């Protein structure tokens, strides 16, 4: 499809009659703001291919299988696309392949049995987030960043993967992130309208991110970061109770890998 804007492509079953032939869904020439959802796509070279400056598309809740190359591909120059809640299985190369583009959000996908990498990010791409995905049985890396690619990687679930993270420096050796432990947060201390959080050091962590909510099961928002193992949060409202969680973060070559969030700690002001 070319020059397609604000369209919905959904509830189709599409299968190639050729071995690894063509594309299941193809968007090109600035095809923007389209919804591709609830399709079943199998046996194409690339099941979903986004090219030619096509932006702000949503690829969600599709079942993609047996791609001859990669299951879902967002090509160079295609910015701010969402890839969410898809089941991607048995791709000969990569489950998801991201070209040199920015703002891609990859979340809540189930990626199974990729011949190479579960998620492969090409050189100089800038990925907003790779989060809450299940990556199972990747032939090489669960998530792989080429040279000069950057992005946020956190809260993913890895099963039977040869390696969790890889990063190419343009050399024979790959950069690998450590599997970060969850910070063990100590009881919160209070002084006036300021609280102090502290936790045990996490091996391999470069920095810690702190999140806050006003109910223990509420939405936790980022409030700051520190390279230390303590953090002060002030100017809080008297009589109100605040809840905090902490994540350990490893930073290297532009890639940020985060641990799972800690258990909450609360304090009434």
From TrEMBL:
Protein name per UniProt: Parallel beta-helix repeat (Two copies)
Top-rank taxon: Bacteria
Pfam family, one: Beta_helix
Fibronectin type-III domain boundaries: 179-254
TM ranges: none
InterPro entries per record: Beta_helix, FN3_dom, FN3_sf, Ig-like_fold, PbH1, Pectin_lyas_fold, Pectin_lyase_fold/virulence
Gene source species: Eubacterium coprostanoligenes
């Amino acid at each position: 499809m070319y020059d397609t804007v604000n369209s919905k492509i959904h509830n189709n079953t599409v299968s190639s009659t050729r071995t690894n032939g063509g594309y299941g869904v193809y968007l090109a020439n600035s095809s923007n703001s389209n919804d591709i959802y609830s399709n079943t796509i199998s046996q194409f070279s690339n099941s979903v291919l986004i090219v030619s400056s096509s932006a702000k598309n949503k690829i969600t809740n599709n079942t993609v299988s047996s791609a001859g190359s990669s299951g879902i591909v967002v090509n160079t120059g295609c910015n701010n696309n969402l890839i969410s809640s898809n089941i991607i299985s048995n791709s000969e190369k990569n489950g998801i392949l991201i070209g040199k583009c920015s703002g891609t959000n990859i979340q809540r996908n189930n990626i199974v049995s990729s011949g190479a990498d579960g998620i492969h990010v090409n050189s100089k791409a800038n990925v907003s987030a790779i989060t809450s995905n299940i990556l199972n049985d990747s032939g090489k890396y669960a998530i792989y960043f080429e040279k000069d690619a950057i992005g946020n990687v956190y809260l993913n679930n890895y099963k039977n993967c040869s390696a969790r993270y890889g990063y190419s420096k343009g050399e024979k050796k790959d950069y690998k992130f450590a599997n970060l432990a969850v910070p063990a947060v100590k009881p919160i201390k209070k002084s006036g309208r300021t609280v102090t959080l502290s936790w045990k050091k996490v091996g391999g962590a470069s920095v810690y991110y702190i999140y806050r909510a006003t109910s223990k099961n509420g939405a936790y928002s980022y409030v700051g970061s520190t390279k230390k193992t303590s953090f002060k949060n002030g100017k809080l409202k008297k009589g109100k109770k605040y809840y905090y969680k902490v994540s350990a973060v490893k930073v290297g070559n532009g890639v940020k890998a985060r641990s799972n969030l800690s258990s909450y700690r609360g304090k009434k002001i």
